[in-house]
Input
Amino acid sequence: MGFFNRLLGVDLSMTLCALRDVDLESNRRTEHSGQQDTREALYEEVSVRLGSAHRWREVGPSLISAIDDLFVEHHPELIDPFVPDYLACLRSRGCSVSLTSNTAFVPGITIRRVLDILGLGDRFDFLLFSDEVGVGKPNPEFMCKVFGHRNCHACVTSEVLHLGDNEATDGEGARLAGYQFELFDPRQGFCWRRLQREIVNAT
Output
């Protein structure tokens, strides 16, 4: 974020604090209602809090593009290198595999670029991102799009297993949609055996 604060002419620590606060507030709104803030609105709110709204209006669009490119260049790594193989195994057993995400500062189009780099781009039957749908988890309108998707193989909602790391968005959203839910703690790594057990119980 060094270039971000330089372009806006503000202190780096202040920039990081503003970004964190706006992100947390946006997450709370999404958790409460499922409504999705646009990233443009989020960045604009950051610039207002930093007293640099006028500067943001001048450089905002080019800055957002640069941030996306940096995210792709310094993308997150897989918590388990065998995740692509796990997903392929699920699909070979007749399961459809999808990815859903509340996007906030990182849009779906950018996440797709990272998935391709990580070798995951072709491992999902479909992808759903809140910035593209217009609402996010736990909003039933978003969650029901999983079962309603033409590439979803489930015959009834109870056959859908939603694996997520956020009880408020993933857990509540899954329950509202009638899906099974498994809470996943990223700090403990990807538990393939646990996922296998859940799939066996679901079929």
The mean pLDDT is 86.
